[in-house]
Amino acid sequence: MNALAARRRHPAAIAVLLMLGLFLTGAVYAAVAPEPADATTQALPAQSVEEGKSLFRANCATCHGVNAEGRQTGNGNQIAGPPLAGVGAAAVDFQVGTGRMPMTQPGTQAARSKTVKFSQEQIDALAAYVASLAPGPSVPSEEAVDPTKGDPAMGGELFRVNCAMCHNFAGSGGALTRGKYAPSLKDVSGKHIYEAMATGPQSMPVFNDANMSPENKRNIIAFLDTINKQENPGGLTLGSLGPVTEGMFAWVFGLGILVGCAVWLGSKAA
Questions:
Q1: DSSP annotation of 239
Q2: Do domains 38-138 and 140-231 have the same CATH topology?
Q3: How many CB atoms sit inside 10 A of residue 244's CB?
Q4: Domain spanning 140-231: CATH superfamily
Q5: How far is CA 237 from each of CA 20, 51, 136, 246, rounded to the nearest angstrom?
Q6: Could you tell me the CA-to-CA distances from 178 to 70, 109, 128, 200, 203 in Å, in that order?
Q7: Rounded to whole angstroms, how far apart are CA atoms 98 and 192?
Q8: Residue 147 and residue 190: Cα distance in Å, rounded?
Q9: Contacts of 195 (CB under 8 A, 6+ apart)
Q10: Burial bucket for residue 228 (CB in 10 Å: 0-12, 13-18, 19+)
């Protein structure tokens, strides 16, 4: 008994017990932990991966590194391009398909552009290469982004709770801090909206399948599609930006009309 008690009082006993506990906890978690949400490890055509690798090194490696490991600027304080392992094919399809990448010049935020540098086949090849680096969100299917199969009413509720504080109640966009902004969602394809929710580009949070199901993402797409197509029976929308544009309209045109009337009455009296 004295020998056993001496071992228990040994200074290293507590450290050994902690190490054993951490080891067992890690082993159990690794055995039962679920796969990361939205992570895909689908087989990719070798030809597409090689083609995408060539396109990447010719057009993207300057900022993102030859092997997509990321790169910093010369002073080492700012990131020229983040690492891309794990961002998935969806991030590439969104960034390149909306003309945000490659960036024409450094800036606070990559803006959407009507000019897309690559064809869809080349974008698919780039996406296949980046997806081969590590599992990540995949490009959604046509059914997953079909607004006719979603519920606009439910999508409206989800949008107002999760998105309206940045993108405006009608998806018109809005200003954020440090020169950033939430872009307008008008005339944005359902595929790109889904990909933005799944990947969280720039200042946007990630809405993966763990916190927003694919069905609810499609419901939000259905709501935005309804907003874009509906007519406004009340007249001019003034950009759907709320009281700011309405107040400016009243000040500019309302006061302008009153001043004009005052000048006209003054000239008549003279």
A1: G
A2: yes
A3: 10
A4: Cytochrome c-like domain (1.10.760.10)
A5: 65, 46, 39, 9
A6: 23, 10, 34, 18, 11
A7: 8
A8: 7
A9: 90, 91, 93, 94, 137, 139, 140
A10: middle
- pLDDT of residue 49 exceeding 60: yes
Q: What is the DSSP letter of 136?
A: B
Q: In CATH, what number does 38-138 get?
A: 1.10.760.10
CA atoms within 13 A on the CB side of 60: 27
User: CA-to-CA distance for 268 and 270, rounded, in angstroms?
Assistant: 5
- Model confidence pLDDT, tens digit, residues 58-96: 999 988 999 999 887 665 555 678 899 999 999 999 999
- How many C-beta atoms lie closer than 10 Å to residue 8's C-beta? 8
Q: Domain limits of the chain?
A: 2-32, 38-138, 140-231
Tokens of 215: 């069905």
pLDDT digit string, tens, across residues 97-139: 999 998 877 778 888 988 899 999 999 999 999 999 999 999 9
